[in-house]
Design goal:
Layout (H helix, E strand, L loop, with lengths): L1 H5 L6 H8 L3 H17 L2
Length: 42
């Protein structure tokens, strides 16, 4: 959820890592998953 809320705010990956406590890998994978879900729902 944190990634979906934060990404539209224009945060960088580094900022997302700091804000969520996730690893850079988790942030990248989470963003990719969000994009795939959004693409599939259109």
């Amino acid at each position: 959820m944190a990634l979906m809320e934060a990404r539209p705010a224009g945060l960088t990956t580094r900022q997302l890592v700091a804000a969520t406590g996730m690893s850079p890998y988790q942030v990248r994978k989470g963003i990719l998953w969000i994009k795939e879900v959004a693409r599939a729902s259109t």
